[in-house]
Write a structure and sequence with these properties.
The two termini are 26 Å apart. It is built from 19 helices and ten strands. By secondary structure, it is α/β, with parallel strands linked by helices. It has a single domain, classed as Alpha-Beta Barrel (TIM Barrel), CATH 3.20.20.140. The protein is globular. The longest helix is centred in the last third of the chain and has 23 residues. Strand 3 and strand 4 form a beta hairpin.
Length: 480
């Protein structure tokens, strides 16, 4: 491995499939490639109708190594049970066993893990076990040629990068439900009891040997802390119910959690990742950060959106004027749902010295018709160039919104690999990142696309900034 074309991924799940590969003991390690089960005719049918989701692991440690993705945020995610309890099931899906098989094929989790998760509802216990699984993975791979380490700050990160054949993880959490909220039990608890539990659980994660650097306040479902944005499209939105708490603001309990996480009095500061928060929640949070940074210019809190696309709207308000339904994103180049980032938000993130990880989920980068057209291109090189164009359009949207050269300090890379995404057909895993980087350079060199927004940077430097430099600068400033 070398540091040239080295890639940093702000958000991926190299642990998720391996951790859930068996119960009570995982069958696979974080190094191994996991192929989703399909040992029946029914499972094969499920594979066919869900082929837009890759049926093998995308960012197991060997794939990250192959793609020279040497630094990555390891995202812990206790799966939200609303994912597993489906509604409006079609006739061909009736029966517990069939539903479990569908979930097994789509997620890559083992059948026994899915059965266990459906009967057990303790997110914080899940989180602690998943953390231990990742911490226990520290060390060399089976042939002793490569090593996985976790780091706690920028200085440790720099030291680890000097060692050859080392993969470097930074701990993070996706969804603050992981702290113990959004369950039938927590819904019945008093505000005082909840506050006490959350204070205690935040102290526990801050005492981990490798406390998380970031945590998403919201995820797909209501967690009693903050409203979430619509994230599911057809047919998934017909099978799971996101309505409760959707598009709401931050609750008093949510503000307690934010203050506890950002505090330095109870351990290291844990940054809030705004991806998945509703627009209402984001507006409130941005105001809080603006006020804090104005009063504390020497202790700035940055805004992080680790895996996102841009929606092209000028303001946050305009991005929620129309409901997030498929029609809204049908004919647009960019994906216009409010889960994505408006120009107004980009400017706020830039002002807070924040960062945006551009994701590899084609369904979050482009409109429905755009993606359909690109997916139907038979000639692979041509298809790759079209995906590169779409990725660049999202990056240029950031620079255009900032309207100055420093806009190029905001975009980074946050793939969301192994987060059950609809990947770009031609770049299906971390192993493909060298090809992706080269294609991004080639696309700009060949087309001179939006050259007025390059601000004098070469295509190589622009790719380097997105894939490596901006994340390193961000870690240097805030990963302390």
């Amino acid at each position: 491995m070398n540091n040239q074309n080295l890639c940093i991924d702000l958000h991926c799940h190299p642990n998720l499939k391996s951790f859930n590969s068996g119960f009570p003991k995982p069958k696979h390690t974080m190094w191994e490639k996991i192929f989703h089960a399909s040992d029946s005719r029914f499972a094969e049918r499920v594979k066919t109708i869900s082929q837009h989701i890759l049926k093998e692991s995308q960012c197991n440690l060997d794939s990250l190594d192959e793609g020279n993705v040497r630094v990555f945020n390891v995202s812990l995610y206790p799966i939200e049970r609303s994912f597993l309890h489906m509604r409006n099931l079609p006739k061909w899906l009736i029966g517990k066993n069939k539903i479990n098989i569908v979930q097994q094929v789509v997620t890559g989790f083992s059948l026994e893990s899915i059965v266990h998760l459906k009967t057990h509802y303790d997110y914080f216990s899940d989180l602690q076990k998943e953390y231990k699984f990742v911490e226990d993975a520290i060390g060399k791979n089976s042939d002793k040629k490569k090593e996985f380490v976790l780091v706690n700050n920028f200085s440790e990160l720099e030291d680890a990068l000097k060692k050859a054949n080392t993969l470097i993880g930074i701990m993070s959490i996706e969804g603050a439900h992981a702290l113990g909220t959004g369950t039938p039990l927590s819904e019945k608890m008093s505000a005082e009891a909840l506050e006490k539990m959350l204070t205690s659980n935040i102290q526990k994660i801050k005492k981990w040997k490798y406390p998380p650097f970031t945590i998403n306040l919201a995820h797909h479902f209501w967690n009693q802390l903050a409203g979430h944005a619509t994230s599911f499209k057809p047919p998934i939105n017909g099978l799971v119910n996101q309505n409760k708490g959707k598009d709401k603001g931050i609750t008093p309990l949510g503000w307690h959690v934010i203050r506890q996480l950002l505090s330095k009095e109870n351990g290291k500061r844990i940054l809030i990742d705004t991806k998945h928060m509703s627009v209402a929640s984001r507006i409130e949070y941005y105001q809080f950060i603006r006020n804090y940074n104005f009063v504390n210019p020497h202790d700035k809190i940055p805004i992080v959106s680790s895996h996102a696309g841009m929606n092209g709207y000028s303001t946050m308000e305009s991005s929620i004027r129309e409901k997030d339904v498929l029609r809204k994103a049908r004919r647009s180049r960019l994906y216009k749902w409010s889960i994505n980032i408006s120009n107004e938000e980009i400017a706020i993130i830039h002002e807070a010295e924040g960062i945006i990880g551009l994701m590899m989920d084609r369904g979050n980068l482009g409109g429905v018709k755009t993606i359909k057209q690109i997916s139907s291109i038979a000639e692979q090189k041509k298809q790759r160039m079209e995906y590169c164009k779409l990725f660049w359009e999202n990056a240029f949207q950031i620079v255009k919104a900032v309207n100055e050269k420093s806009g190029w300090n905001v975009p980074a890379f946050g793939s969301d690999f192994d987060g059950t995404i609809t990947h770009m057909d031609t770049y299906e895993s971390s192993a493909k990142m060298p090809l992706f980087q080269q294609d991004l350079v080639d696309y700009l060199q060949t087309t001179q696309f939006k050259k007025e927004l390059w601000y004098g940077y070469s295509p190589e430097v622009l790719v380097q900034k997105i894939m490596h430099d901006n994340a390193m600068q961000f870690y240097k400033k805030f990963f302390v």
